[in-house]
Each structure stands twice: as structure tokens, then as C-alpha cells.
Design a protein that fits this description.
Layout (H helix, E strand, L loop, with lengths): L1 E5 L6 H12 L2 E4 H11 L2 H11 L6 H12 L8 E4 L5 H13 L6 E6 L2 H17 L10 H15 L1 H8 L3 E5 L4 H14 L4 H17 L2 H18 L6 H14 L1 H11 L2 H12 L1
Helix pairs in contact: 1-9, 2-3, 4-5, 6-7, 11-12, 11-13, 12-13
Bound molecules: adenosine monophosphate.
Adenosine monophosphate (AMP) binds next to helix 2 and helix 3.
Length: 281
């Protein structure tokens, strides 16, 4: 699963990303987090980003694109990822398209969390107050003044992405003013609707199919009647119910041979004809 969470600062992208990480075992790729780590470590990237971030301005595209490209190549991102805070400009979105294409990866969805701005200011103030109460360090760009600048940057540079992804039929919008739980439910519903959950289910199906293909012919043959027995056991007539139950039990635990015998007993006449015909084939 690969998706983008789009939304202004404070819209809940980080919270929802964390929930996706726990639920689907994917990784959260937050450029903000990565840049903060770079600033703290005083790397060359961190030194370039530090003042821009403190002022609520965006870091140059090439820096964040480089970071994301490297990060996507890490083994833990192979299962999928949720991009949080990236892309933030149209050139970043174009660069992402390009690098996903090169890496033969598909983007499943872009989920926009839509919120109103006054609520955002309120949220940030609450978050800052809570962090202070816990004795945690507050981000330098989490003040109302810097947030106003970050919101302006979002409006002018990031909001065009809504059009960019809706044109590409990737965009789904969620009301970010709902409760965290409701937003999560809606995000999951969208992911399931776009088939983003398939990659997780697919290997299991594939593995099953592959196991059947690679199984010895005898084992494969044995698997078939067991399957049939399960069907037949279900349709067993009233009198054959006991045998039907035996068939079902046999399917569950005692192997195909017994299942076939038990099923035979359970099959009503009409069903027997069909089974015989199929057996001839
Ligand atoms: P965030 O934690 O996502 O709110 O990001 C904090 C700050 O990091 C932003 O205000 C920007 O200065 C910088 N930043 C994070 N992601 C990006 C990005 N994709 N492009 C440019 N700057 C970014």
C-alpha cells in the first residue's frame, strides 16, 4: 500500500499516518520528521533547512525529493508507505511520479484531510499546551505566528496538489473535522474502495495458488474431492445430515479420503448424478 496524506499543518496527517502504520505494517515517511532529525544532527541538509523551517517556509524541492527517494529504497518501505508532508509542491509531486515510475511502484491513493483554518489554530494551541504540560519540547515552528506562515505556504504551494491528484483520479477527500476515529474509519474505507488493501491479501492468495501448483499431482487430486465434499456436505439432505457433518469434519481434519466417503453417504440422489458426471470428466 502506498498513499499520500495531504492536508495543512495540524490537520491530523501524523495521527492518521501512525494508525495506518500500526494497522497495515507500512512505514510513515514524514519529511518534516526527517528534516527535524537532520537539523538536530546538524547534517549539511539540516543546516540548509534549519532557518527555513523555523520561519515556516518550505525547504527546496531537490532536498526533500532526494530524501524521499533514498528512503523509499530502504527495505522497510518495501511493504508500503504513507507519505506525510510530502509532496508539498507540484514539482515535488511530479518528481514523485517520476521516481515511482522508475522504481516500478504504484501510488494507490491521495487522501486529503480537509479542515478549517480557525480550527487548526485552535488545535495547534491545544497541542502546544498539552506538550508543555507533559514537559515536552515544543517545536519552534508550532507558534501561532509561524503556523500562520505555514498555512500561507500550504495555500499557495500545496493546495494546487488537490487539483493535480484529482485530475489523475487519485484524490479522495475526508472531512478532517470529524473525530480521529471517524477519520480513521473513512480513510480505511477509501483504501479498501481503491483496492489499496489488495497487495497485503494478494501474497496469501498467490502463495496458496503457488502451493497448489507446485504440489504433487496426487496431493492436488486429493484436494479436489475434499473441496467437493465440503460443498456436498453443505447441501446434504435432512436424513444425510449426520453423514454431512462427518464429511465436514473429515474435510476439516481427517483428510480427503474420509471426506469423500462421508460425502458419498451424504449426497442426495440428484447430487450424486452430478458428482458422477464430474468424476467421469
Ligand atoms: P511538517 O512537520 O510536515 O509540518 O514540516 C515541518 C517543516 O519542514 C515545514 O514547515 C517545512 O519547512 C519543512 N518541510 C517538511 N516537508 C517538506 C516538503 N515536502 N517540502 C518542503 N519543506 C518541507
Amino acid at each position: 500500500m502506498r498513499l499520500i496524506l495531504l492536508g495543512p499543518p495540524g490537520s491530523g496527517k501524523g495521527t492518521q499516518a501512525q494508525r495506518l502504520v500500526h494497522r497495515y505494517g507500512i512505514v510513515q515517511l514524514s519529511t518534516g520528521e526527517m528534516l527535524r532529525a537532520a537539523v538536530a544532527a546538524e547534517t549539511p541538509v539540516g543546516l540548509k533547512a534549519k532557518d527555513l523551517m523555523a520561519n515556516g517556509q518550505l525547504v527546496p524541492d531537490e532536498i526533500v525529493v532526494g530524501i524521499i527517494s533514498d528512503r523509499i529504497d530502504q527495505p522497510d518501505a518495501a511493504k508500503g508507505f504513507v507519505l506525510d508532508g510530502f509532496p508539498r509542491t507540484v514539482p515535488q509531486a511530479e518528481a514523485l511520479d517520476e521516481l515511482l515510475k522508475k522504481k516500478h511502484l504504484r501510488l494507490d491513493a491521495v487522501v486529503e484531510l480537509r479542515v478549517n483554518e480557525s480550527a487548526l489554530l485552535q488545535r495547534v494551541e491545544t497541542r502546544v499546551a498539552e506538550m508543555r504540560a507533559r514537559g515536552e519540547e515544543v517545536r519552534v515552528d508550532d507558534t501561532p505566528e509561524v503556523l500562520t506562515k505555514r498555512l500561507a505556504a500550504y495555500r499557495s504551494q500545496t493546495e494546487p496538489l488537490i487539483h493535480y491528484y484529482s485530475e489523475r483520479r487519485k484524490l479522495a477527500t475526508v472531512d478532517g473535522m470529524m473525530s480521529i476515529e471517524q477519520v480513521t474509519r473513512e480513510v480505511n474505507r477509501i483504501l479498501s474502495a481503491v483496492g489499496a488493501l489488495e497487495p497485503k491479501a494478494a501474497p496469501a492468495r498467490k502463495a496458496k495458488g503457488a502451493a497448489r501448483k507446485s504440489a504433487k499431482p496426487a496431493a492436488r487430486l486429493a484436494a479436489k474431492p475434499a473441496k467437493k465434499a465440503r460443498k456436498v456436505a453443505k447441501t446434504a439432505s435432512k436424513g444425510g445430515k449426520k453423514a454431512g457433518r462427518k464429511a465436514a469434519a473429515a474435510v476439516k481434519g481427517r483428510g480427503a479420503g474420509k471426506a469423500r466417503k462421508a460425502a458419498k453417504r451424504a449426497v442426495p440422489k440428484a447430487a450424486k448424478k452430478v458428482t458422477k458426471k464430474r468424476a467421469k470428466r
